[in-house]
Amino acid sequence: MLHVTARTGDRITTLLPGSIDLHTAPLPRAPGAASSTTAAAASPRPPPGSVPSAEGAGTVVEVGPGVADVAVGDRVGWVEIPGTYAERAVVDSSRLVPLPDDIGFETAAAVLLQGMTAHYLVKDAYPVQGGDTVLVHAAAGGMGLLLTQLVTHLGGRVIGTTSTTAKAGPAKRAGAAEVILSSAVDDLAAEVRRLNGGQGLPVVFDGVGAHTFDASLASLRTRGHLVLFGAASGAVPPFDPMRLAHGGSLTLTRPSLGDFIADRSELLRRAADVFEWVRSKALEITVTGRYALSETARAHSDLEARRTTGKLLLVPGATALGRREETRS
Fold first, then answer.
1. Distance between CA atoms of residues 208 and 232, nearest Å
2. DSSP readout, 34-69?
3. Is 52 exposed, middle or buried (0-12, 13-18, 19+ CB in 10 A)?
4. Are 170 and 309 in contact, with CB atoms under 8 Å apart?
5. Distance separating alpha carbons of residues 56 and 76, to the nearest angstrom
6. How far apart are alpha carbons 71 and 158 in whole angstroms?
7. Over 50: is that where the pLDDT of 5 sits?
8. What is the structure's pLDDT at 295?
9. How confident is the model at residue 117 (pLDDT cuts 50, 70, 90)?
10. Residue ranges of the alpha helices (H) in the chain?
């Protein structure tokens, strides 16, 4: 369980499982604590000396002075808060998302960050319309599966890319109409166009970065949009913006979730939409691995070696899980 505390203008203290009496553990001087069963493990490699991850879920067990938006016993989730891989973390109470009774801790930890990212990508970065055919790179990854489901839910058609044939199945189950094994084609953009009747696409959602950037641009139609939301393969090198003009008046955007949930009302609105999509099964959350906190290095090794699909979770308080099993919610 993860324990969290809140104080106005301060951050929340999160204590991972261990003891029933929270006060028997050495708590930092912060007003409260919450407990949760999970914290999501999929976070970028952190700088040396820092605590990684930025998402989790828990139950508030103590609240500090001046906190009006959460109370003891509230079940909450959070995103974009560093330090979730620790026995304690500190979070501003205004960044907490109340969890509805029908949304469990694992679901919240697995869906909030990537679900709200997918939300702004298909609603704001490029508002997907019925009939749009879009390219989603890494369609079997945690982010790719959510994007594929949402584009399909909104009436679009997904062409997905995967790194292995084994990952084609999950991408198709999520709704991808076509799946390209990226290592099996010499010209990815040409294959994308072939699958779209020889035409370019209105949008490409690219979270891979350096390895796919050129093919992404070449897959677009005139006045198409490249939404570059990640850099799993490394940052895109500097390039001449005239490439966008020569490609057909293309647009490139590099959005980030924080700018789309900066206001609390927007944070809560996006989270509510994501939870509703989960209820309606428009979004199915696939958790393919659970690891004890002590197995964090292994979880990251599995991610970096591209041995995973879906979402991985760290389970605070567990010992040597090392489980690779798929569950959906």
1. 5
2. EE-S-EE---PPPPTTS----EEEEEEEEE-TT--S
3. middle
4. yes
5. 9
6. 42
7. no
8. 85
9. very high
10. 105-120, 142-153, 168-173, 188-195, 213-218, 242-246, 264-279, 296-304
